[in-house]
Amino acid sequence: MELDKRGAELLFQVLTEREEKNSVAIASNDSFGSWTKTFTDPRLCAAVVDRLTFGGNRTRKC
């Protein structure tokens, strides 16, 4: 899924505000490296990954 710049910024804002208050769960079949397809701005993509992984737990399918 590809988001336009505004959509990516809005999703980032939602994730940022949510993680400040409670947990966030995201499921994806893609590695973080391929998230640039969704978040086409590399800096925004890095910020989203940072927000989701800081102090978090990653679970991988075996």
Walk me through what this model shows:
The protein is an all-alpha fold and 62 residues long. It has one domain. It is 44% helix and 0% strand. It is built from two helices and no strands. Helix 1 runs parallel beside helix 2. The radius of gyration is 12 Å and the shape is globular. It starts with a helix and ends in a 9-residue tail after the last helix.
Note the overall shape. globular
Total number of distinct structural domains = 1
Low-pLDDT stretches: none
- The end-to-end span amounts to 25 Å
Specify Rg, calculated over alpha carbons.
12 Å
Strand content: under 5%
Q: Which structural class should the secondary elements be placed in?
A: mainly alpha
Number of distinct beta strands: 0
Keywords for this entry:
IstB-like ATP-binding protein; P-loop_NTPase; ATP binding; 62 residues; single chain; IstB_ATP-bd; ATP-binding; mainly alpha
Summary of the model, kept short:
This protein is mostly helical and 62 residues long. The protein has 2 helices and no strands.
Question: What does the secondary structure layout of this molecule look like, with pairings?
Answer:
Blueprint: H1 5-19, H2 42-53
Helix pairs in contact: 1-2
